Hints:
Elements: H1 3-25, E1 28-33, H2 40-47, H3 50-53, E2 57-62, H4 70-74, E3 80-83, H5 87-94, E4 100-104, E5 116-120, E6 135-137, H6 142-154, E7 163-164, H7 169-178, E8 183-187, H8 190-196, E9 200-204, H9 205-208, E10 216-219, H10 221-226, H11 228-245, H12 251-261, H13 265-270, H14 284-297, H15 306-309, H16 313-323
Parallel strand pairs: 1-2, 6-7, 6-8
Antiparallel strand pairs: 3-10, 4-10, 5-8, 5-9
Amino acid sequence: MKPAVALAVLSVTFAACGHRDLEQDRPRIRIGYTRYLTMAPMFVADAAGFFEEQGLDVELVPMRSAATSIPALTQGQLDVVPGPMSPSFFNAIYRGAGIRLVGDKGSYSVDSCSPTAFVVSPALGAQTEKVLPKRASWGREPFSEFRVERVLAHFGFDIADVEPHHVPLATRYEAVVAGRLDGAHLSEPFLGRFRSEGGHVWIDLNEVVPGHQFSVFAFGPRLLEEDRELGRRVAIALLKGLRRFNLGKTPENVEILSEALGWERELLEGACWPTMRDDGRINFESIDEFQRWSLEKGDLDALLQPAEYADSTFMAHARRTLDGAP
C-alpha cells in the first residue's frame, strides 16, 4: 500500500473510532411518548438538536399511557414519562418509588383556546343545558374522569347517572357524530375536526377547570438520584423544546409535528395547541385538588405534599442556564 493511501486509511479509521467513542460518551436517555399534541416539546427538542446540544442520545419510546408506564419509570426502563397525573403515580411515591414530577407540560388557560372539550351529538344540540347526555365517552385515565365529572357538575348533573363508554378517541369522535353516543370528551385533532364540521361543543375545559395542570414531566431514579447532573441537562433540553413549541404554528414546528404525529399540516394548523408555561413551573394547587378527588374515590393511599411528589430544582436550573435568572 502506498504511504499516502495508508495515511488516508489510518485517518479514516481513527476518525471512525473517534466517532464511536463520542457516541459511547453520550448517555442514552429513554423518554416515553404517545402520539398526542401535548408531547410536542420532546419531538421539537429532538428534531431541533436540543438533546444533542446537551451531549445526550435520546430514544423516544412508545407507551400506552403515562399511568401504565409508571412501573417502567420506577424500574429505570424509562428515564422520563410525560403525560397526565394518575393515582398510581402518587401511590408509587408513597410506597417508596424514586420518581417525581419536575415540570409543566400543559395547563388550561382562559386566555387561549381549549385543546379539549366535552361535545354532544347533533340529536341533542343546544338542548344539552337541560338534557343529560346519558351515553357518554371519555378516556380510561382517572384524570379524564376527573375532568368529565367537573363538566357534568357545572351543568348540575351527576356522573353516576351517565352510562360510560370507554372507547379510543377516534371511535369516540365517530360515535358522537353518528349519534351512537350522546356526548364525548374530545381532544385534538378530533376536536378541531368536530368544530369545523359544525358540531355542538357543550363546553370547553378551560372554562370548567381554568389554570388546571393536565400534563407534566416526571423523572425516574436515574435522573433524580443516580446522576442529577444528567437530569439537569435533560431539563434544559426539554425547556428549550417547550419554549420553541410555544412560538406557535411556525413552519418549522408544523413540519416537525406533522412528521412526528402523522397528522396532515392543515389539521395541525387548524388545531388548538395546548398552553405550556415558558418557565416550566407546576400548578401545585390543581394537582392537590386532583389528589383530594382521587382520595375520595378510594384510589389514593394518602395525600402527599408537593415536596414529596415533585422536584422543582431541575427546571429552576434550566431557567437559570437559559435566562440567567431564577
